[in-house]
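Two proteins follow. First one:
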Amino acid sequence: HAQGDQAGLARERLAAMTATLARSAAAPARTAAALAHSAASHPARPAPGAGTLKRVQRWSALGSTRIILTTDRKSGYRYGLIPAAHGAPARLYVDLEEIEPAEDLEQTQEVDDAVLRRIRVARQPGGTTRVVLDLKRIEGYTIKDFHLPAEKKIVIDLRPPEAALVASTAQARPDDGYQSQRFDGAAHEAPHGAPGERLALSRAFGLKVKTIVIDPGHGGHDPGAIGFGLQEKDLALDIAQRLRTAIERNRPGLRVGMTREDDRFVALEDRPRIAKDQGADLFISIHLNANSTERISGIETYFLNLTADAAAIQVAARENALTEKKVSDLNLILTDLLQDANILESNRLARTLQASLVGQLLPGFPVRNLGVKQAPFLVLIGSEMPSVLVEAGFITNRAESKRFRESHYREKIAEGIYAGLSDYISGDSLADKKPPLPVKLAKADS
């Protein structure tokens, strides 16, 4: 709709696509031999001010294949399809301008799925990195790019011929999820079936959690939610410090990091980057909720995903310090990115923490279990590990606010989160058990 609220954005994206296609049409096709010569003739030497190609990820689902290229900054790129010739396979290439491959990024990755033979990465003259996809047979492809706060992603979708799709589908169980393979040689199948039948990736591969980063929400000039003389930033930091102490006391082998140690401001987009710099295997962001209606209370845990839930969007808008319109824009950005296994594990981690936290508090306090929800939180975008955001209660509810003033109650919250983390790490997930039902609230909390 030319007069719609997204018309301006649509025109901008169309102009960008047109420019990209024009560059692609002007780019000369290069043979495999020329590509190999180029890689050999231009040894690793980072260009001044160049960005980095951090990751190349690939997912396959019923024959279709998705590749995601992640760089640490915005950059121009061009792409083209080179037909098969003289025994060489058809190739799709993407040239990333002023981008260098990360030092630990493998140059060649064998894939051999329904449409893709291998993925190759090579430096080109002028500080360009070329990613080459050696193809089998494809019906077509699409390429999209997304700018996130901490990085840029280029998403390539390869569509197989109908015959390949049918053959691949026939080999899969009817209830299979997508299959995912990272380029460290580890492959996994997405969980399927009822929650109690799901197999955690951490248990399937014996993955070890070595580092946990805790993120106390807000800070500095950003107080977060305010209610009854309390500020979210102070409570979040206190609970985070207690959680760190609980982890260090009970699991001395784990490293625990914090995105902030005191009352200072840390930008939302910097927090997942801090977690990555500290080598986090899990990321826990701690917050307190707010609502204009004082009677609203309860505990809820979020993981990063799309949502159409108005209440979840409202919470994300407040925590993101954005308008609700901007949150809906984030939904659009995320639409084609959320194929990552981290989403599955973040969901599992969120359910485990929520069940444990509510279970820890219920014996002594009439807390309300608001469950696990999903929303596009900026603080979780860009994290490369299972990540959740805990809303430990409503600071704007009189009864809950009164509890938050008590050191004992804040300690119980930290203990509940720690117990959930411990269950998740050990694989004995409370999320696989029937979660506690919401309890009837006391009159003051209703």
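Second one, unrelated to the first:
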Amino acid sequence: MSANQTHPRQPRTVLGKLYVCLTPKERRDFWLLMVLVLFMAAFQTAGVGSVAPFMAVAANPEVVAEQEILAWAYEGGGFESTQVFLIALGAGVIAVLLFGNAFTVFTMYWLYRYVDMREASLSHRLFRQYLYQPYSYFLSKNTSELSRNILTEVQQAVTQLMRPVMELFAKGAVAVVLVLFLIATDPIVAFAVFGVMGGGYAGLTLGLSPAMRRLGLKRRHWNLERFAATAEAFGAIKELKIRGNEAAFDERFQNAAKQFSWTRAKNQILSATPKYGMEGVMLSAGIGLIVVLISTRGTFAEVVPLLSVYAFAAQRLNPALERVYQGAVKLRFAGPAVEGLYEDLIEGGDRYREQRVMRKEGEMRELSFDREIALRNVHFS
């Protein structure tokens, strides 16, 4: 099967193509990481939920006798006063938060380690595949393009797509579990808060995705131009010096380098800008929530526990949604790099396998040498 034919199992999405490029072991490791991510989300949510009883007792110690669970914990722990009980609750909250944060560090360590090691494995597999292609393959290929694919396109696919997407899964799981917890706590307020935050990021993602796709295609093109200008200039340095063509190659590389850097700068700008806009939205929504809760639920002291939970949840939820947004837009930006990697690594894999089989079976024999190699009428000037 040639590289330009349709692969019978060709995925339709960029993520599907990237997943197919992984080995079976790498896919198993991915799903094990997802299990860790779910536990991380559960522990993060437990930390948020532990704030509510502490703030309830701090705002009104009499609530210990009014709420069944608090009363059971108070009596079961043998506490002599609500003040001691409050200290114990505070210690419990700190313990839950510290454990949740420690487990998050543990999970993110393995996540980042997994992602960074994929750059090494994918680039090596791509290099090996090119290496075993038949000689005719290289007659129609620019070696600068092959070097670019191995050294920078794999890096682009890993750092600008795999890492943000893994963070998207991790932070997305935290966001989903937190939202479910908030809905269980107070559905109306939860839907209002998540509607503002989620709606804002969803609108930005849908609006910027086409632009990010175009930037990704431009980055891929200008990156090839950089490699081609460098390889052609240094590969033909004798002829270049004889003809005095330094200025032409200098201008060519300078233009490609500028365009390449500018596309990357635009990507960073579009990825980071919403953060500052959403901070204003979150502040306005927080003030509005305080006004509405006090107007409908009673005094400020009565709504302190609920406000504390939502404030703490928002502090965890906003960065999670921001990572989800960044992962979604970078998915579009890095998409062309993954498509090129998939085409060469998966669709072009049949020629590689054929060459490997021929080597193993001894079908690739040395060329016979019968008499002589002669050069006639050869001139050079």
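SUMMARY FIELD: The radius of gyration is 29 Å. Residues 1-8 have pLDDT under 50 and may be disordered.
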